[in-house]
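Design job #97: recover the sequence.
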């Protein structure tokens, strides 16, 4: 599995069950789709039907130039961000609730941190760098 940024739909679809397992969302049916339009400048969006444990994650098509415009946009981070929303969905925080801003911050910071951890953990140690450090 790639330790660098997932840049294709196929890679993201392969990562989805891994993250679902990590977040213990096995009971949820998560539908991932890529669209030419998601919503006002958004890269991803999700909605859920809590009683049925069903979620729909819509992501902006990876060929869209919006992905390149911002250096901090990473499709896997966006996918994980939306999955954290699924995890938080039972708390019932509506968009107009003042708490929703904290949910957004949580999703943003946790998704960035989790994706960084996944990549670092799987990356083999850089032997040259370790040797150099030891002799310094
Ligand atoms: Zn969000």
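Job complete. Output follows.
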């Amino acid at each position: 599995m790639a330790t660098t940024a997932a840049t294709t739909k196929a890679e993201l679809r392969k990562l989805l069950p891994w993250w679902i397992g990590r977040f213990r969302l096995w009971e949820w049916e998560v539908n991932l789709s890529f669209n030419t339009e998601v919503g006002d400048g958004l890269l991803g969006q999700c909605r859920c039907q809590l009683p049925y444990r069903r979620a729909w994650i819509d992501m902006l098509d990876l060929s869209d130039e919006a992905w390149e415009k911002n250096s901090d946009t990473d499709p896997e981070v966006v996918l994980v961000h939306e999955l954290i929303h699924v995890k938080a969905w039972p708390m019932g925080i509506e968009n107009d609730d003042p708490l929703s801003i904290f949910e957004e911050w949580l999703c943003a910071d946790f998704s960035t941190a989790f994706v960084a951890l996944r990549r670092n953990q799987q990356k083999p140690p850089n032997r040259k760098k370790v040797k150099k450090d030891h002799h310094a």
